[in-house]
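Field reference: sequence -> structure
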Amino acid sequence: MKVAKALTIAGSDSGGGAGIQADLKTFQEMKVFGTSVLTAVTAQNTLGVKDIQPITPEMVISQIDCVGEDIGTDSVKTGMLFSAEIIEAVSNRMNHYGWRPVVDPVMIAKGGAPLLQKEAIRALKEYLLPLALVITPNVPEAEALTGIRISAEKDKRKAAMLLHSLGSEIVVIKGGHDPVASHYAEDLFFDGNEFHSFKSKRMFTKNTHGTGCTFSAAITAGIANGLTPYEAVKTAKMFIQCAIENQLEIGNGHGPTNHFAYNRTGGSLRDET
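Structure field:
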């Protein structure tokens, strides 16, 4: 039986809502065999991040090579990379295997803890973004990467064009933190030629831990399954909307999204593209 495969390179979340755990759950729900490379171990729950222990760049490389030399992958995503050294190591192996990743530029946890060292932003722009098939920043991440203050739609478009110029084939600026829209979460898609919007009803809930990880993992799974980037983003938008709408109510803080929801609801979501 031939099965699609996807690799996630990210940090571990002991609370199970984000990071490697969220990615593997998403791959499984989208019928993709998931492999993983840990970049850091975090001690966290719905109340916040208590501690972070990065993995050595050498161990990150060893994990990637174990997957690349034997199992291989149909798509790959990066999440929390933590340091410039890890970013350079990951970028080196992307070049080696000819992989173009879905890059989720994870910088800050839901509770506010920094997940990317400040000096690593330069490395992200210099080494990894030129290799990216898709980059999926939220508004604060797009601002940090571009230096553009986003307060209007034209600012998002300007930021998307700048990110595209840094090398990413597709730019998706997520709308969950968008100060412009209040009733809808609108993601901006840019392929270098055209802009598209993916719109969904905004859910006013604290249970959104891991939304960025899950969204980018769903894109990665879609690409592994043979979808175009546009189709993969459209499917991922529906996946994450179902996950947010059907809350689990786990923990006392920012609870995780519901990775079961997309398949249990038949993926039935209004198409508001």
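Note: The first strand starts at residue 5 and ends at 13.
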